[in-house]
Design goal:
By secondary structure, the protein is an alpha/beta fold. The chain is built from seven helices and 13 strands.
């Protein structure tokens, strides 16, 4: 069975200033998602599922899904604030989405095969999809996951801070711990992040980080549902900005000895449009890849 690609495309892109998932960055109006889908098809994925916001479904179907007809099977699911366990209501004043792992949960019942989760607005490169497809097409027994890791230095924005899942990897190549760290910035020749006490601390440029390229088997949905209902929501209902991140869930499963996560290294240089100021640089990088023969002028 071919693995499925699951693309997180529900966010409004508040820092970017619009629906960056629908922003045409390639020479023929391609979005970053288009390059991910192109690479996934080439790597052997059999289907693409998108999680989006219901409010831009029509635009998404017209501008994005229509491109893939005849190329690969596609489906969509929706993330919303009120997608909560039975008996739980959205807290008064809550506007922020519940986070990336809540978005993953939206595909429960739709995805029944091993799958790779990625962000819509991140460019990962073909090797990411090739390596993940190879792992996910193996003889997995369940609770066997993977993560494609990037060197921190290859994942920074030139125009602002970023959040990353900082990884501790064992000598056996398996993930031991992942910690979500916010406000990571370039500071001259150093890279620093903001600690809880507000001070800035240096971090190695070679640190392995997650860019939300996670490979899971379908049992991950049940684990996530149980944790969200029984642990996350009771502890965070009073915090209107709390988020159920993928690294939080993965770290819990590793700590409980429930799952293993194989770390797949890549030297690929990530790029994306975290901020509007990032856009010109991304457009140029895509032009450079086309000039080098990595991608055709028109993908679909």
């Amino acid at each position: 069975m071919k693995p499925t690609l699951y693309i997180l495309a529900a966010g409004m892109g508040s820092r970017y200033g619009g629906l960056k998932q629908l922003d045409g960055l390639g020479p023929s109006g391609e979005t970053i998602m288009d390059y991910s889908v192109y690479d996934a098809i080439k790597a052997g994925f059999g289907r693409v599922v998108f999680v989006i916001g219901k409010h831009f479904e029509d635009d998404f179907r017209r501008k994005v899904l229509s491109k893939y007809q005849g190329k690969i099977q596609t489906d969509i699911v929706f993330q919303s604030l009120d997608a909560l366990p039975i008996g739980v209501s959205v807290p008064a004043g809550r506007e922020k989405p519940w986070g990336t792992n809540h978005a993953v949960l939206m595909a429960k019942g739709v995805i029944k095969e091993p799958f790779l989760v990625i962000n819509a607005d991140d460019f990962y490169g073909y090797d990411t999809f090739r390596a993940a497809a190879e792992f996910l097409s193996g003889n997995l027994k369940g609770n066997e996951y993977c993560m494609v890791g990037f060197a921190l230095k290859n994942t920074l924005s030139e125009t602002g801070s970023v959040s990353r899942g900082v990884c501790e990897v064992g000598a056996d190549g398996y993930l031991k711990k992942v910690t979500e760290i916010k406000e990571i910035v370039k500071a001259g020749d150093e890279i620093k992040f903001k600690c809880e006490d507000g001070t800035m601390r240096p971090i190695s440029s070679e640190t392995a980080v997650s860019m939300n390229a996670w490979g899971f088997t379908p049992d991950y949905f049940e684990h996530s549902e149980n944790y969200f209902r029984d642990i996350f929501l009771p502890a965070n209902m009073g915090d209107l900005r709390s988020e159920f991140f993928i690294p939080l869930m993965v770290d819990y499963l590793i700590g409980q000895g429930v799952a293993s996560v194989k770390c797949i290294d890549t030297n690929a240089e990530w790029f994306g449009v975290t901020y509007a100021e990032d856009r010109p640089g991304v457009v140029q990088k895509i032009k450079d890849l086309i000039a080098a023969g990595v991608y055709p002028e028109r993908l679909f």
